Amino acid sequence: MTQQGGRGSRGGAAAGTSALGPGAEFDFIRSILARRTAGPEHGEHVRVGPGDDCAVIAGDGIAVSVDMAVEGVHFRRDWIGAKEIGYRCVAAALSDLAAVAAAPIGVCVALGTPDADRAEFALQVMAGAQDAAAAAGASLLGGDVTRTPGPLMLDVVVLGNAPTPILRSGARSGDSLWVTGELGAAALAVRTWRNGQTPAPAARSAYARPRPRIKEARWLADRRALHALIDLSDGLAGDAAHIAAASGVRIVLDATSIPIHPLLRSTPQAPVGGASSLAISTEEALRLALSGGDDYELCFAAPAGAVEDLAGDFNATFGTPLTRVGTVHEGAGLWLRIADGEVAAADYGGYDHFGGVP
Amino acid sequence: MTQQGGRGSRGGAAAGTSALGPGAEFDFIRSILARRTAGPEHGEHVRVGPGDDCAVIAGDGIAVSVDMAVEGVHFRRDWIGAKEIGYRCVAAALSDLAAVAAAPIGVCVALGTPDADRAEFALQVMAGAQDAAAAAGASLLGGDVTRTPGPLMLDVVVLGNAPTPILRSGARSGDSLWVTGELGAAALAVRTWRNGQTPAPAARSAYARPRPRIKEARWLADRRALHALIDLSDGLAGDAAHIAAASGVRIVLDATSIPIHPLLRSTPQAPVGGASSLAISTEEALRLALSGGDDYELCFAAPAGAVEDLAGDFNATFGTPLTRVGTVHEGAGLWLRIADGEVAAADYGGYDHFGGVP
């Protein structure tokens, strides 16, 4: 899983090494932060520094995050078109605002284009980027353009209002862990492309036009249902591990509770409209749902019993389920309860584009 | 001048095409903005949108800008080292805060690294980036890391406080145009490297460790000396043209007033410490001072007579001169007064990394 999906990672613990989950990419971030030189670590103007989905500026509480996407690493143009590339990159970046329950203000898009792509292709990428911003109610604030001798790349800065940001670090023993939506459809699309086939429209759309759960996060925050929050960019196994590390807790996922996307549960079918289904074992479906990136659903820790009564309203409002997937305990690490007992969830690792074979 | 220096460009006029100066790069930005789809153009939370050095968020007045730098386009590692690459990119980005007279809050750094560069080289780049942030009193807020099959790239987001930002658009007929410092040393370094020689230490330093004029801009703003402000990233000829376009005025530069850096005025000397001077004609020196990017000095329009009495204090405080280089008139465009009369300054064009031969 090194050629797609996961979006790199922000931050790292200000004080050291404990606030990020495991993985080669996060080891690299830890190395960067361990070498921090003199200078303001958390200046008076900084409320939240490195290590969460967004940094937050003091005063009004402006949340900011940056997300770099590179052709051949995060997307491939034989999979999706120019406009979809722009849409996907900006939607993925906006998901970091959802991940702290911020309200979008605007985006800045920096675009590096190979010479051959100027004119129409790059303009289409930017049109898609602007569509995604508009869909979230975010203004295009500015950006940068440059030529590059390398692959197409986008770097998207998102800014939002977060007077009361929800961080990864607030989970407490006794909380329940929940996710929005259903998991694994985008990963299924990637798996299908890799096999030289055409993904089902719903899987393709999950990858090409992800929907950042901005309103959903604020709805939950307004109802005091959120102790800790993250978005699923690198896969539930990877991202829930960040909550565990940042909160200093042990989280146990229940394998039978993971809301696997229906596309992964269905039995193989005849091709429909040119799209082929794939035969997927239950084991493989669970693995895709846990380790596949790009779902951009939310994962959150909530006080025990706080969400059960909200799930119906949530589904009625947003047309998507809330599912309780685990529990929070004293201790450390992320574990997966399967029939045989508990195993380290790292065995189902999150997406780590530094960790694997290119 | 397509392999170095200029840093791409932000924004473009919200309303259309008039707020940016000429150039292929700006034509491309105009095309992007002309295709803007539905969505908030200037939402209630946006005070300054695309088209200036920074966007500014309403409320507290948070300024934000993003600056993408690509190896082989903006820097070369056979010219400067890893730590200098990081320092230079962040200092250049921070210069956009100076360009609206903002006080730095923090930076986010997104780093795309070729596989071969992970470990030490990339860590050194980030150490240099953090040095530049610390030198400006800016916190490292966060960032992103990703691998790339292409060249090393950095994207730097800067955030600052700008309750009363100074924009490009405030120049009025009757104003004088001023610059800080002396121009052309960084361009001389690039020219020297291109010739296969080693630049003088002062020229090398101007390129490798630019000094964003953050305190200088705020000093001038505090004294109400600034009608319009920009930083010199693409060369005086290009950047003053942005002020002319954004302000809807005609600006006339006086060629004999341009503060050409002493290194460009000196006669050729014997190599000192391995560094070679180059024989540079007066014409060539003027061209480098006008069109060479990377000076990161400030250019500003001030009310007539407002700055003359401040120049001595400024020099005593910051150890660098203020020089009156032109005048602002009704009309349009940027012009250069030379012995023969006035010529279009575009003949001395700013750096345009889209416009020339790679």
Helix-strand blueprint:
2 copies of one chain form a homodimer.
Chain A: H1 24-34, E1 46-48, E2 55-57, E3 62-70, H2 82-98, E4 103-113, H3 120-135, E5 139-147, E6 153-161, E7 176-180, H4 185-194, H5 201-208, H6 214-222, E8 228-231, H7 236-247, E9 250-254, H8 262-265, H9 282-291, E10 298-302, H10 311-318, E11 322-329, E12 333-338, E13 341-344
Parallel strand pairs in A: 4-5, 9-12
Antiparallel strand pairs in A: 1-2, 2-3, 3-6, 4-6, 7-10, 7-11, 8-10, 9-11, 12-13
Helix pairs in contact in A: 2-3, 2-6, 4-5
Describe the overall structure.
The structure is a homodimer of 358-residue chains. By secondary structure, chain A is α+β, with helices and mostly antiparallel strands. Chain A is built from 10 helices and 13 strands. Chain A has helices at residues 24-34, 82-98, 120-135, 185-194, 201-208, 214-222, 236-247, 262-265, 282-291, 311-318; strands at residues 46-48, 55-57, 62-70, 103-113, 139-147, 153-161, 176-180, 228-231, 250-254, 298-302, 322-329, 333-338, 341-344. In chain A, the strands form 2 sheets. In chain A, strands 8-10-7-11-9-12-13 form a 7-stranded mixed β-sheet. Chain A has a 6-stranded mixed β-sheet with strand order 1-2-3-6-4-5, with helices on one face. In chain A, a hairpin with a 4-residue loop joins strand 2 (55-57) and strand 3 (62-70). In chain A, helix 2 packs parallel to helix 3 (120-135) and helix 2 (82-98) runs parallel beside helix 6 (214-222). Chain A is globular, with a radius of gyration of 19 Å. The N and C termini of chain A lie close together (8 Å). At the A-B interface, helix 1, strand 3, strand 4, helix 3 and strand 5 of A face helix 1, strand 3, strand 4, helix 3 and strand 5 of B.
